[in-house]
Amino acid sequence: MKRIQCLQVAMEACATRQGTFIGPILTEIIGHPRLTPYRGGWCGNDVNPSVFDEKTQQTMYAYTERLGQALYEKGYRGYFEVDYLIDVNDNRFDVYLGELNPRVTGISAMTNMSAFCNRTIPLYLFHLLEFSDTDFDLDPADYNQQVKDFNHPAFGQLVFKHTGKALKIVTAIPATGVYKTEKGSLTFVRYADNPRELADDEIYILRILSEGDYLYKGADTVIVFANSQLQDAENQLTATAESLIACIEDAVRYRDLTDEEQQLTERYAKHASIKSSTDNE
């Protein structure tokens, strides 16, 4: 990342006895200071494979299939995720491996609630089938080709972390559910436990913290899902994303700690060393 101008991509897949099933291409939103205090911190995704040409998409799917096969041969079965760095300097679109995560990840909700997975087979189902006694005969090559050929509608998520350094206490935070944004404010529409039935003018908020919780640097506060593109091909947030961020910043409120609360946190945040604990027994 330090040596190339790149777009970051995340793809999830599942290594099974039938082969490797692969989900849609997700671009990653990284390091935006209004979303995360960390320079290289992950803070969202777009289902947006169309920013890459056919050759680049094919390369990522081929690499992911080979990784899945290698994992299975080594004894690993089931769900995994791959990060790629795509060099966009001079439109080269060279594909580099970023990292491999053999687990369910922070993009699993995006993958399995994408329009493709809603209309066909959720990727995680292959993980369940692999670890069940159920026989299945599904062609991963056919599934993967369908994913690549599918016209993926815009769908993205923003992950909000507290960016301040000082410890705070949450005093107001949006409840989980469906909202509309009107004149820079959130209007609650209805409760829902997932973003599958969103209208184009609605967003879904998943609340992580509650009123009264401590808010520390890097703490996740809410995750916002929208049927919109949230970042462009130059790693810049779209106007929609900027508007959503402003709404959340206005809706999440917090206060300073009282002197008593500050004293308590300072007291209990200090961990006794192993030696001192042993000496006091």
Description:
The structure is a single chain. This protein is an alpha+beta fold and 281 residues long. It folds into 2 domains: 6-149, D-amino Acid Aminotransferase, Chain A, domain 1; 156-262, no CATH class. Helices cover 27% and strands 30% of the residues. It contains 8 helices and 14 strands. The longest helix has 20 residues, at 54-73. The protein is globular, with a radius of gyration of 21 Å. The chain starts with 5 loop residues before the first strand and ends with a helix. Residues 272-281 have low confidence and may be disordered.
The CATH top-level class label of the largest domain = Alpha Beta
Low-confidence stretches: 272-281
Question: Quick one: overall form?
Answer: globular
**What letter string, H or E per element, gives the SSE order?**
EEEEHEEHHHHEEEEEEEHEHH
Q: What's the alpha carbon Rg, rounded to whole Å?
A: 21 Å
**Beta content:** 25-35%
What's the total helix number?
Answer: 8
Helix content: 25-40%
Please give the oligomerization state of what you see: single chain
CATH T-level topology of the largest domain: D-amino Acid Aminotransferase, Chain A, domain 1
Number of domains: 2
The counted number of beta strands is 14
The CATH superfamily label of the largest domain reads ATP-grasp fold, B domain
Average residue pLDDT? 93
- What is the level-2 CATH architecture name of the largest domain? 2-Layer Sandwich
Sheet with most strands: 11 strands, antiparallel
How would you classify the helix and strand content by structural class?
alpha+beta
Straight-line N-to-C gap:
50 Å
